[in-house]
Amino acid sequence: xxxxxxRPDVLALRSSQIRxxxxxxxxxxxxxxxxxxxxxxxxxxxxxxxxxxxxxxxxTFYTHNLGRADLREALSAYLGRLxxxxxxxxxxxxxxxGVSALMLAAQAVISPGDRVxxxxxxxxxxxxxxxxxxxxxxTVALCAESGRWTLDLDRLMAAxxxxxxxxxxxxxxxxxxxxxxxxxxxxxxxxxxxxGIWLIADDVxxxxxxxxxxxxxxxxxxxxxxxxxxxxSFSKAWRMTGWRLGWIVAPPELIAPLGVLLExxxxxxxxxxxxAAASALxxxxxxxxxxxxELRAARDQVIGGLTTLSGPxxxxxxxxxxxxxMYAFFRIAGCTDAVAMANDLIERAGxxxxxxxxxxxxxxxxxxxxxxxxxxxxxxxxxRLAAYLSHR
Length: 392
Ligand SMILES: Cc1ncc(COP(=O)(O)O)c(C=O)c1O
Description:
The chain is an alpha/beta fold and 392 residues long. It folds into two domains: 8-43 and 287-390, Aspartate Aminotransferase, domain 1 (Alpha-Beta Complex), CATH 3.90.1150; 58-283, Type I PLP-dependent aspartate aminotransferase-like (Major domain) (Aspartate Aminotransferase, domain 2), CATH 3.40.640. The protein is 41% helix and 16% strand. The strands form four sheets. The chain has a seven-stranded mixed β-sheet, sandwiched between helices. Helix 3 packs antiparallel against helix 10 (271-283). Bound molecules: pyridoxal-5'-phosphate. The site of pyridoxal-5'-phosphate has 13 residues, from helix 5.
């Protein structure tokens, strides 16, 4: 008999510790969940109605590998408005989610043994996807300094050696909310250009910035033939996590190969969902601004609450202020095992958080709270945490 095991690089993948913690407690009525990264409200009604009408109209067929022409036109117009420069359809591919966009980007440019640099802590998929391609992944850690997350540019440059194939950079970052400062874009892009390093920018939170209506993007400064791939998604800004639709902006030369890869991964995105997505792009600005305002208020509520908890009584909470995204990434003094603390919080306080170690070794000891929730729910979560800390 031959062994039935998967190949070694697949066996070596870490399973998601967010899932490990959540799966054990999911559905328990007395646990208040903040572990997953999504809004607790459904998709805006006008987008749901567009999908419903499209289904009724019979939009149930296969579509072009790269996405329907009308959606790619709508996306090109949206990106042009957002970034203030033309981004033509020859640079666009529609994908079946943001995570699928990352996988396709990796399949397109990464070969076994390639050296890849990932800035972390980061959503686990960003580091595991290159590992599926049998890449060697090196991480560069963000640091929490004076209440904010920062990226040490010199350390990043030192890690981006000439033999590096790709840099994966997620800004605004999940889980920390760190957002790439506009003035850091040119030095990073120049360095990648000099050494032929692919820059894979995971931009799924770009509309969820707390300082502007969008975070700084490499798309605003890159040339058409730069080795830049921007991956994005409808999930976060339009509250469409369950729809599984995303996109890629890439150099024109890469789009046809991406179409071939799309054929062999998922073939195409669902027909009627593309109609709903076009509607989101064309009519969704108000909904996006509302979500951004809600998240900014929720950020202030949760970070403010955590900071108060860390007050003179000295429970020692460190809660850097996120500049974007939908998460508070914080630590409680003395926590060295985030999974153990996340499990303890579930058992003894009914509070469901994601363990920071899920986001790489550099997240060990930290906890992630998705604050994309109603204010009452965040307030109840803070009450439960306060009660837990007072009994420690
Ligand atoms: C950093 C980051 N990239 C990509 C995604 C993927 O989003 P989706 O696959 O829902 O489009 C997520 C989802 O949490 C994320 O946090």
